[in-house]
Amino acid sequence: MSLHATHRDAGQVTVVDLSGRIVLGDGSALLRKTIRELLADQRKLILLNLADVDYIDSSGIGELVSGFTAVKNQSGDLKLLHLTKKVRDLLQITKLYTVFDVFTDESAALRSFT
Amino acid sequence: MSVREGVINAFHYGNEERPDKKIHLAVDLTADKMIIHVLDEGAGFLLSDVPDPLAEENLLSTSGRGIFLMRAFMDEFNVISGRTGGAGNRDVKETARPGECFAEWPRRTRRQAPTGSVRK
What is the ipTM for the molecules in this complex? Predict the structure, then answer.
């Protein structure tokens, strides 16, 4: 299953709903394109909803980090919502769980941007 | 996860994404283990040259976690020499104990890894 991404506005925050696999190739490329387009549109507060992301490889993890630093470099913020167990485990063993702000509740995540 | 990362490494770092180079994948199934071999046609590498992705200075690196993830999901992990000079990957899953695996990777012995192409 390839990656699909849609986004919606929630006030100043853009919620990106991702589904599928963030892996080397189209998945990573789509995530990169989505974040870069949002930044170009001055949407710098981004919440990635990973509820339907069932797999992520090292390339996908790298793309999450790349997006995070790109947003931070533009004085924005990128946070994560609804990690599946697999993705949470990967972020924990790679120590990235402490780098990203991770939420299990969308309302709380949105409030955290203010 | 480990097989995928192994093949990605072989393709990207070993064969440098050259379509004329092959990746060899083989699986040996024994009574208690599943052994997976991945062999590329690249220069090979030394495991000791691979940066630690958990080091503070590497945490925000956008690459360099492939081998780390392989090791994380295996019981053992090694690098061994490929017969053709490339690097190969040998993963073993102990089927008698589901979820526990070990891996061996071929160690490069002939040449130094190309600059800028450190195996991740």
Answer: 0.86
